[in-house]
Design goal:
By secondary structure, the protein is α+β, with helices and mostly antiparallel strands. The chain has a domain at about 35-130: Immunoglobulin-like (Sandwich), CATH 2.60.40. The protein is about 35% helix and about 25% strand. The model is unreliable at about 25-30 and about 175-180 (pLDDT under 50).
Length: about 240
């Protein structure tokens, strides 16, 4: 009987040890599978000329986690970056991004709150605040530099004055033709010059008749003088 009691007691102790080991193993496995703050990480990078803060969740259980980012200043929260975002992690990692034009060497605090059903499994900050790079983001300059010369002349060069345009003078023929071109008559009546020409041709309105009369008298007187002179010369020769 004593041997059987010892055997029974020993068996009970072995069962207890086995149960305890199984409980510890299950507990460890459960702890390993549960969401943990160590499964979250954050980085600051550039998206062109804009900054971005990215948080990665590598929780294989996929427990929903709310991520909130704060800009720090002298150990306190200066402001919240955007709105809180929810992420469901995976073994390969799932990321969420926050647009932020961060300054070089700025410090950010990332808080994670994971709730599995009604149980809060994580409510902590990512270990160590995030510090941004020492160089700010800037746009990639892929444009080809312009080869167009500057419109402003340099000090060493002088723009030559514009050549003077020489307008050829009008030819004599053109001037003559322009000056000789008669002005159109205002009416059909003959001009004064035409009337005077007609009067000169007809002798009217001038001293032509008087001059002709005097000339006739002088011719007659001269002829008489010649006649008497010839008679006297003939008489003296006799």
């Amino acid at each position: 009987m004593s041997l059987s009691r010892r055997t029974a007691a020993r068996s009970v102790r072995m069962l207890g040890v086995t149960a305890a080991s199984a409980a510890l193993a299950l507990g460890a496995a459960g702890t390993a599978l549960a969401c943990n703050i160590s499964e979250f990480s954050a980085t600051a990078a550039c998206d062109g000329a804009k900054g971005v803060i990215t948080v990665t969740d590598k929780d294989p259980t996929g427990v929903p986690a709310e991520i909130t980012v704060f800009l720090e200043n002298n150990g306190g929260d200066l402001r919240q970056v955007g709105e809180a975002q929810t992420v469901k992690g995976s073994a390969t990692g799932v990321t969420v991004s926050f647009a932020e034009d961060w300054e070089p060497n700025a410090e950010y605090r990332i808080h994670v709150k994971a709730v599995d059903g009604t149980k809060v499994v994580v409510d902590k900050d990512i270990t160590g605040n995030l510090t941004t790079p020492s160089k700010a983001c800037k746009a990639d300059d892929t444009s080809t530099p312009s080869t167009t010369p500057s419109s402003t002349p340099s000090d060493s060069t002088t723009t030559p004055p514009p050549a003077e345009t020489i307008t050829p003078s009008a030819s004599p023929s053109d001037s003559a033709s322009d000056s000789a071109a008669p002005a159109p008559s205002a009416s059909n009546a003959p001009s004064a010059a035409v009337q005077e020409s007609n009067l000169a041709e007809t002798g009217a309105g001038s001293n032509t008749g008087l001059i002709v009369g005097i000339a006739a008298v002088l011719v007659a007187v001269g002829g008489g003088a010649v006649f008497f002179g010839m008679r006297r010369r003939g008489a003296s020769q006799r």
